[in-house]
UniProtKB/TrEMBL annotation:
Signal peptide positions (record): none
Organism: Paraburkholderia bryophila
Protein name: Phospholipase/lecithinase/hemolysin
Gene3D superfamilies reported for this sequence: SGNH hydrolase (3.40.50.1110)
Taxonomy, superkingdom: Bacteria
Molecular function via GO: hydrolase activity, acting on ester bonds
Keywords, comma-separated and alphabetical: Hydrolase
Pfam families according to UniProt: Lipase_GDSL (PF00657)
Length: 341
C-alpha cells in the first residue's frame, strides 16, 4: 500500500500541469443545453443534474485517479450511466467538485454532484473510503443538494434531476436485525432530500432504488452468500417507497426499479452480450491498485474486452456495458412517464 501511494503521488506531481489544465470540472455541465448541433435522442433538451454516490460519480477523483488511468468507478475510460443519460438529452455532465492535489474538494462548473463513497446523510469523517487515495472528503447527498442550492438557488423545469443513493448506507450498516434502523433512517432521509429537490422547483426527478447488492461479487463472497445484503437492499427499497408515498412524492417523481432490472440482467446475462455475469471482475485484482474500479484502466482489465463482456468492474461497481444498458433503461422509464420518447 505504501509503495502504491508513493507511485501514485509521483505520477500525480509529474503530471500536475496536465491535471490542472485537463482534468478539472469542465464547462460542459454548467450550461442549460449542449453546444452540439445534434438533436437529443429523447426529443427534448434537458440539463441533467445528478446526486448520489460512486454509481453516478462522473469524475470527482479524476485528478488523482487519472495518474494510473482511472477516474470513475467503472471500467475506465468508460462512462457511467448519468453521463450517457445526459448525452441522450443533449447535454454533457461533468463533476461539480473535484479533488485537488492536497485531497481537498474544489468546486467546478459541472452539475454532477454524486461522489464515490457518499452516504445519504452521514458525514464523511465517520466512514473510511479509500482513505489513502482520496482522504475523507466525500459529501453525503444532503450536503450535495445543499451545495447545489447554495450555488444555483433553485431547480427548474428544463432540468432532469437524477438521484441514486443508499448503497453505502447498506454496506456500512452491519447485519440484521441491528442493521435495520441504519438502513431505514437512510431511506427516510433520502425521501426527505427528494422532497427538498421537488420543493425547490424540480419537475423532472428520477429516483433510483438500490440494486440487489447481495448479488454483487462482494455479496457473493460473504459467508452468507449475500443474503444479508439482499435483505438490506430490499428493506431500503421498501422503506424508500413508503417514505416517498407518505411525503406525497410518489406521483411527483419518476421511480426506476434498479433492483428488478439488475436481477433480470444477471439471470439472462448472455442475451445481453456478457460472457461473465456477477461471478468475477473485469478489473484484475492483481493489477488494479487497491482493487478498486476507480483505479482500473485497460491495462488492468482481466481480458482486453472485459469492459463489454463482464458485468462487474470490481466487487461492487458495474462495467461500461452495464452502465450503458442501465442508461437505456432509465431513458425508457423517463419516456414512459411522458417526457421525450
Amino acid at each position: 500500500m505504501k509503495g502504491f501511494q508513493q507511485t501514485l503521488c509521483a505520477a500525480i506531481f509529474t503530471s500536475a500541469i496536465f491535471f490542472l489544465t485537463g482534468c478539472g470540472g469542465g464547462s460542459g455541465g454548467g450550461g442549460s443545453s449542449s453546444s452540439s448541433t445534434t438533436p437529443p435522442a429523447g426529443g427534448v433538451t434537458l440539463q441533467v443534474v445528478s446526486f448520489g454516490d460512486s454509481l453516478s460519480d462522473v469524475g470527482t477523483y479524476a485528478p488523482v485517479a487519472s495518474a494510473v488511468g482511472g477516474g470513475r468507478f467503472t471500467t475506465n475510460p468508460g462512462q457511467v450511466w448519468t453521463q450517457n443519460v445526459a448525452q441522450y438529452y443533449g447535454n454533457t455532465l461533468t463533476a461539480a467538485f473535484t479533488i485537488n492535489l492536497t485531497h481537498e474538494l474544489s468546486p467546478q462548473s459541472g452539475l454532477g454532484y454524486a461522489q464515490g463513497g457518499s452516504t445519504v446523510a452521514t458525514p464523511a469523517d465517520q466512514y473510511d473510503f479509500l482513505t489513502a487515495v482520496i482522504g475523507n472528503v466525500e459529501m453525503p447527498v444532503n450536503q450535495q443538494v445543499g451545495s447545489y442550492l447554495s450555488a444555483h438557488t433553485s431547480f427548474n423545469a428544463n432540468q432532469l434531476v437524477l438521484v441514486w443513493a443508499g448503497a453505502n448506507d447498506v454496506l456500512r450498516a452491519g447485519t440484521l436485525p441491528s442493521a435495520a434502523p441504519v438502513v431505514q433512517t437512510a431511506a427516510a432521509a433520502l425521501a426527505q432530500i427528494v422532497g427538498e429537490i421537488v420543493g425547490n422547483g424540480a419537475t423532472h426527478v428520477v429516483v433510483v432504488n438500490l440494486p440487489n447488492i447481495g448479488l454483487s461479487p462482494k455479496g457473493l463472497a460473504q459467508p452468507d452468500g449475500g443474503a444479508n445484503l439482499t435483505q438490506l437492499s430490499q428493506l431500503f427499497n421498501s422503506d424508500l417507497t413508503t417514505a416517498l408515498q407518505a411525503n406525497g412524492l410518489q406521483g411527483k417523481v419518476i421511480s426506476v426499479d434498479a433492483y428488478t432490472w439488475l436481477n433480470g440482467i444477471i439471470a439472462n446475462f448472455q442475451s445481453y452480450g456478457f460472457t461473465v455475469s456477477n461471478t468475477a471482475m473485469a478489473c484484475d485484482p492483481s493489477k488494479t491498485p487497491d482493487d478498486t474500479s476507480l483505479l482500473c484502466s485497460p491495462a488492468t482489465y482481466t481480458t482486453a474486452n472485459a469492459d463489454q463482456t463482464y458485468m462487474f468492474a470490481d466487487d461492487l461497481h458495474p462495467t461500461t456495458h452495464v452502465h450503458a444498458l442501465f442508461a437505456q433503461y432509465v431513458e425508457q422509464q423517463i419516456a414512459a412517464s411522458g417526457l421525450g420518447h
